[in-house]
Amino acid sequence: MNKISSTWRRTTVAVTLGVASVMFAGCTTTSPSDKATPAEKRQELNSAANATLTKLYEGSPQSRQLVERARGVLVFPDVLSASFIVGAEHGAGVLRVNGQDSGYYTVTGGSIGFQAGAQSKAMVLLFMTDDALAKFRASSGWTIGADATVAVANVGANGSIDSNTAKQPIVGFVLNNAGLMAGVSVDGNKISPSTL
C-alpha cells in the first residue's frame, strides 16, 4: 500500500509539473501584439474596450446609464485566467474619465483550487463618486476588497440592474463569451498603473 501511494504521488507530481511547464511555455511565446509599438498597443486596447462596453450594453441596456453617470470607467477587455491547482490571472485596461482615455492599468490575481485550464473574461469597474475615483487614481496599487469594495452588479433576466448595487460607490461587471456573469467575486485582484 505504501509503495502504491508513493508511486501515485510521484506520478501526480510529474503530471502536475508537466502540465505547468506547458502552460508557462504558452505564456512566454511571442505574439504579434508583443512586437507592436506602445501607441499600437494602446489603440488595440482602446478598440477592445469599446467592444467590451458594447457587449455590456447588449447584455444590460440599463448599464449604459450607469456608465454615463460614472465619474470614471475602467475597462479590462481581456483578463486571462490560467490554472492547474494554483491559478493566476492578468490583463491590461484603460481608465476613461469624461469619455477620454486617462491612464492604463494592469490587473493581477491568484487563486488556489482544483480546476485546470484557461479562460478569458472582461471586467468593467465604474467609479460612481468623485471620492472613489480620486482614491483610486492616487494609489500606486489598489486591491479590490482591501482598498475598496466593488459591488458586482446583479443583473436580472431582462437586463435590469439591482437598484441597491447601482447606488454603490464602485460598481463592477464581469463578462465572458456568453455574456454577463452572475455571482462572481473580484476580491483580491490588484490593479496597478501601467506604462503602456
From TrEMBL:
Pfam families recorded: Ysc84
Heme keyword on record: no
InterPro entries documented for this protein: SH3_domain_YSC84-like, Ysc84_actin-binding
Keywords assigned: Signal
Signal peptide interval: 1-25
Domain (Ysc84 actin-binding): residue spans on this chain: 108-193
Source organism superkingdom: Bacteria
Protein name: YSC84-related protein
